[in-house]
Write a structure and sequence with these properties.
The protein folds into 2 domains: 3-47 and 177-370, no CATH class; 54-155, abc type-2 transporter like fold (3-Layer(aba) Sandwich). Helices cover 67% and strands 6% of the residues. It has helices at residues 3-24, 26-46, 65-75, 88-96, 110-116, 131-155, 178-209, 211-216, 222-250, 260-285, 288-305, 318-324, 328-342, 346-370, and strands at residues 54-60, 80-85, 102-106, 122-126. Helix 1 crosses helix 9 and helix 10 runs antiparallel to helix 13 (328-342). The relative contact order is 0.11.
């Protein structure tokens, strides 16, 4: 038997050992296949950045035809659920008790000032506790008001309030569903958990159980040892990715406009980066509890917060934006959202893939250096 065959046998044995370890550990299977389902269901159904059925208190002090038309414009909108008040005081009380999210106030002289050309004022009060929700609500109210104003001018043969007609189109996510934005990014978070968290425990577990010394006295080379630990978790992570993508497509109806082959290649590249991060943590920590905590802080939390998965990177402070360049999930989330929603946009895919490849090469080189076959 030549050296190549002996090396292949040692690698096969190491892969088999790690595969059996995974099968005997229910937590690994749960993290790889149960956790993605739970997170997808939570984010797909329980988390939404959309503003639908916003509760608006419509204060009409003197009901008439004009106020009824304006209220009808809000009733016809899918974004509002209008509750009518005849005085501002009960509406303000409802806003304080969080029964409504905003107030549209038509004062008693609204119609008189409108017909007299004196400038009818509509009061708008929005609950600003949730700043993002407040901005969205304010924008929806202004949009509904402008639509009604244009129809009002058209019905009466009056000149348009503005000599500009806005034709609005939404690219890539025409339904404006936050689910289509969140679910693709969730693939990166799930793969980070599977790759980094599980791999962060593998070498530390060997040290804790005292089996690392037994491995170190065998003829196995360090390259074979590392590959034997990476390959099973790579397969496990790609399986979790395929499950996540399948649920995104058929459970949540998220479009996949790009190539599945591109998605698969980018996922494999990111999986290598996540595995390298986890393995490096495991080699340095040598303790499963410490390795798990470090993996969550160094890999999962940045992937969740600083990758653009939920929070727009360009809205972050400049210093935080610079830190995001060090987060591998940032590049993968960009690829995911592009492939799912826009298609194969190579000007986005290739630079981000190159960044992942560079990170993977550096991390694997660091793992090889730190994992010298020796006892310290």
């Amino acid at each position: 038997m030549n050296a190549a065959q002996r090396s292949r046998r040692r690698l096969t044995g190491m892969v088999r050992k790690e595969s059996l370890q995974i099968l005997r550990d229910p937590s690994s299977i749960a993290i790889a296949f149960v956790l993605p389902i739970v997170m997808l269901l939570l984010f797909g159904y329980g988390v939404s950045l959309d503003a639908r059925d916003v509760r608006i208190g419509f204060v009409i002090e003197s009901p008439d035809g004009d106020s009824a038309e304006l209220r009808a414009a809000f009733d016809e909108s899918e974004y509002f659920e209008a509750l009518v008040f005849h005085a501002i005081q009960p509406a303000e009380q409802a806003l304080r008790h969080h029964d409504i999210d905003g107030i549209v106030w038509l004062r008693s002289d609204f119609s008189h000032r409108l017909h007299a050309g004196l400038g009818a004022t509509v009061g708008v009060i929005v609950n600003g506790v949730d700043a993002n929700q407040a901005r969205i609500t304010e924008g929806y109210i202004l949009g509904a008001w402008q639509t009604w104003l244009n129809h009002y001018a058209e019905r009466r043969g009056l000149p348009e309030p503005f000599p500009i007609a806005l034709e609005q189109r939404v690219w890539f996510n025409p339904a404006v569903r936050s689910r289509d934005f969140l679910v693709p990014g969730l693939v990166a978070v799930i793969m980070t958990l599977i790759g980094a968290l599980l791999t962060a425990l593998v070498v530390a577990r060997e040290w804790e159980r005292g089996t690392m010394e037994a491995l170190l006295v065998t003829p196995i080379h360090i390259r074979e040892l590392l590959l034997g630990k990476l390959i099973p978790y790579f397969v496990l992570g790609m399986g979790g990715m395929l499950l996540t993508v399948a649920m995104a497509r058929w459970q949540f109806d998220v479009p996949l406009r790009g190539s599945f082959a591109v998605l698969l290649a980018a996922s494999a590249l990111f999986m290598l980066v996540a595995l390298a991060m986890g393995l490096l943590i495991s080699i340095v920590a040598r303790n499963q509890f410490v390795a798990g905590q470090v993996a969550i802080i160094v890999t999962f939390l940045p992937a969740f917060i600083l990758s653009g998965f939920i929070f727009d990177i360009h809205s972050m402070p400049w210093a935080i934006q610079q830190i995001t360049w060090l987060i591998p999930a940032r590049y993968f989330v960009s690829i995911l959202q592009t492939v799912f929603l826009a298609g194969n946009v190579w000007s986005v895919i290739l630079p981000n893939a190159a960044a992942l490849a560079l990170m993977g090469a550096l991390l694997l080189a660091l793992v090889r250096r730190k994992a010298g076959k020796r006892l310290e």
